[in-house]
Amino acid sequence: MTPNLPPKTRDRSVNYWRSNLLLILCLLLVWLLVTFVPAYFARGLTGLFVFDWPFPFWMAAFGAQFCFLLIIGLYAWGMDRLDRRERLRREQER
């Protein structure tokens, strides 16, 4: 960060980036769970069926990709909300 920013602007910028990083960390945790949990427990999950397919196969073939698209959509939605909130704060200060 640049030291020339006023303290109020600097605090707002720090809060914005903390919120951004929190969103990213939460979505990375979801990605980690979707990627590694079904693979780790694949043998134990073979008794579960989704649309007549064994759950580990379904997650590898279809489910993980759907979850990854959902993660991308959630990130875009979350950042849009965060950007709008920041834009409103800046407009209110003017």
Question: What attributes characterize this protein structure?
Answer:
94 residues; mainly alpha; two-stranded antiparallel ribbon; 2 helices; Na_symporter_ssu
Low-pLDDT windows of residues: none
Q: State the total count of DSSP E strands.
A: 2
Number of domains: 1
Q: What percentage of amino acids are in beta strands? A: under 5%
Count of helices? 2
Shape: elongated
Mean pLDDT: 86
Kindly, what is the distance between the CA atoms of the first and last residues, rounded to a whole number of angstroms? Answer: 22 Å
Indicate the percent of residues in helices. Answer: over 70%
| Coarse structural class | mainly alpha
User: What can be said about the biggest beta sheet?
Assistant: 2 strands, antiparallel
Q: Which quaternary structure do these chains form?
A: single chain
Order of helices and strands: HEEH
Give the helix/strand layout.
Elements: H1 7-40, E1 49-50, E2 53-54, H2 55-93
Antiparallel strand pairs: 1-2
Helix pairs in contact: 1-2
